[in-house]
Amino acid sequence: MYNFTYHRPRTLAEVAQLLSANEDAKLLAGGQTFIPTLKQRLAQPSDLVDLSGIAELKGIREEGGGLTIGATTTHAEVAGSELVRRLLPALADLAESIGDPQVRNLGTLGGSISNNDPAADYPAGLVGLGATVRTSKREIGAEDFFTGMFETALEEDEIVTAVHFPKPEKAAYAKFPNPASRYAIVGVFVARTGGGVRVAVTGAAPCVFRATELENALAADFSPAALDGVSVPADGLNEDIHASAEYRAHLVKVMAKRAVAAAG
Length: 264
Fold this sequence. Notes:
By secondary structure, the chain is α+β, with helices and mostly antiparallel strands. It is built from 11 helices and 14 strands. It has helices at about 10-20, 35-40, 75-80, 80-85, 90-95, 100-105, 110-115, 120-130, 140-145, 210-220, 245-264, and strands at about 5, 25-30, 45-50, 60-65, 65-70, 130-135, 140, 145-150, 150, 160-165, 170-175, 185-195, 195-200, 210.
């Protein structure tokens, strides 16, 4: 690592002050991506601002007919929450599928979505549920929040404070995980809501996206069989040593059918 100055503020106001006073300061949430980046000397921040001491960024509460989860709430806390299990079990299942126990006990919701790894699980959950990201400045719909590979709509001094998830009629998440990292080679979140069916895909492309052809089929018949005649194009999908674009296209349909079966 390169040398940096470590800060552990107690309020968001202190965070804002530190960011404005230090141009090369970086935020630390769970650190599951950023700490390895520092160890490999791929980043050289002047200051590291640890968000773990800010109480207002933690916690899970029922709100507005859904759930609001603080940015520094860990994956393990979401997976183990009785409230999440009761109101939105698909989200608890998604959180439980992330990484391993060490990652789940340190990694955070806000850190995951701010990093926006193309194979992360939470982006599919947010887009699939039509969630709203709350920041220190505004509210952003999930589909507008994720803008590209490792890119979001966040401004330089903007901080994710919480995410609000509306409660769906039915929902489930299914993924084909990398056997080593547990990242999604393909993950599909399916939700039936009062506004229609939403199908969000992660791992398959540079950024999370909605599979409209699957949504249209499920809107007519919310069953795995409804997807039998649907083909998912491979154009623009990721291709690497783990899976070709064509295989990922195949997995999108397979995972979607599994998710629908689990939701039903």
